[in-house]
Each structure stands twice: as structure tokens, then as C-alpha cells.
Design a protein that fits this description.
mainly beta; 8-stranded antiparallel beta sheet; 8 strands; globular
């Protein structure tokens, strides 16, 4: 009989996590077990949908005449995104991201914050740090040195629903040509013994 190898501690349930942002190019916190400090600023509460790590790729296959299967495939587009819904819409950091503003522009005067939305937005690339936690056993960190919110969903304001900003953040290549850096504290995979 064949024994099927399984290890429950190598499964991830994204039970908790958080997100932070900082000016573009800010160095990574480097460890999902360490609390990020300034200039990293928290995004606050994230909806229970958690963090969605997106992979979008296109490819071109080349099939020679007389064959029905390709002999080569080339990746023509490879995009990495992160999706989440932030709930703390009153947080200055969150507002500055939603409306592409400098946080200093949101300083209240006499208790009133005022700003205008431009008809001609400019790029707003920032650094991002996301942490996914499954207790102390499974900790995963994603560092995006240059990312930008490229999709914003509608915001619903009603009695039986929390207003939130649903974002898709696109990761762009940094000077080294990398889009996302991974920092994981995971259990060791046991050596395979054939049983």
C-alpha cells in the first residue's frame, strides 16, 4: 500500500495579518515577526476577506507546422498584485492612499479636514509590507518596494455595512528588476523517507 505523505503544520490558514505602507523604496522590515516602525504606517483593520495575492500571466505558445502541441512557450506578461479591503476609512494614511494625497494635506483645521479630488491624478507609488499569520507556526511577509493602487472599488455607505476601501495594488519592478520579496517563517519540511 502506498503511504501518502501529509504534514498539517505545512498548511496555512491566513487567520490574521496586517498591512503597512511607506515612501517608495523604503527598506523592508525584513521579518514578519517584527513590528514595523516609522516610516512604515499601518493600514489598520482589514476586512475578513483577508489578503489576496494575485498572479496574472499571459504566454505565447509556438507550435510548428504539422504538430498539435507546442514545442515552446514564452511568458509575455507577468503581473503580481495584492488585493484587500481596508476598513479604517478615517485613518489619515488610508485616506491619503485612497485619494492619492500627501498625508500632510489631511491635517484638520478647526476639526475639519478638507481636500479636493483632481481630475488628472498622477502616479502614487509607495512601498508596501503585508504580513499573513497563522499563529506562531506560520508567518509570511510580502515586501513590495514599488507598488501602486491601480483599482479602487465603489464605497457603500449604509447602516448594516462597514464602509471600506477595496484596493488592488500592482507591484512594479525595483532597480534590481524584482516586484515582490518574500520573508517567511515556516516549519521545516521533514525529509522524505518514502513512507
Amino acid at each position: 500500500m502506498v503511504n501518502i505523505t501529509r504534514a498539517a503544520d505545512l498548511l496555512e490558514v491566513g487567520a490574521n495579518g496586517g498591512g503597512w505602507t511607506a515612501p517608495k523604496g523604503t527598506a523592508s522590515p525584513g521579518d514578519p515577526a517584527i513590528q514595523p516602525v516609522a516610516p512604515w504606517l499601518p493600514l489598520g483593520a482589514i476586512s475578513d476577506d483577508g489578503l489576496v495575492q494575485g498572479f496574472e500571466e499571459d504566454s505565447q505558445s509556438f507550435t510548428p507546422w504539422g504538430y498539435t502541441a507546442p514545442i515552446r512557450t514564452t511568458i509575455t506578461s507577468s503581473l503580481r498584485t495584492f488585493g484587500l479591503t481596508v476598513w479604517e476609512t478615517g485613518r489619515t494614511t488610508v485616506q491619503s492612499l485612497q485619494y492619492r494625497l500627501d498625508a500632510d494635506d489631511l491635517t484638520p483645521a478647526g476639526g475639519l479636514t478638507t481636500f479636493a479630488e483632481t481630475a488628472s491624478p498622477t502616479p502614487d507609488r509607495r512601498a508596501w509590507w503585508f504580513v499573513v499569520l497563522d499563529g506562531d507556526n506560520f508567518q509570511r511577509g510580502f515586501y513590495v518596494p514599488e507598488g501602486e493602487i491601480t483599482e479602487r472599488s465603489d464605497v457603500t455607505h449604509k447602516q448594516d455595512e462597514i464602509a471600506g476601501y477595496e484596493w488592488t495594488i500592482t507591484a512594479y519592478p525595483d532597480a534590481a528588476g524584482n516586484t515582490v520579496y518574500h520573508f517567511d517563517r515556516l516549519p521545516a519540511t521533514a525529509e522524505y523517507t518514502g513512507s
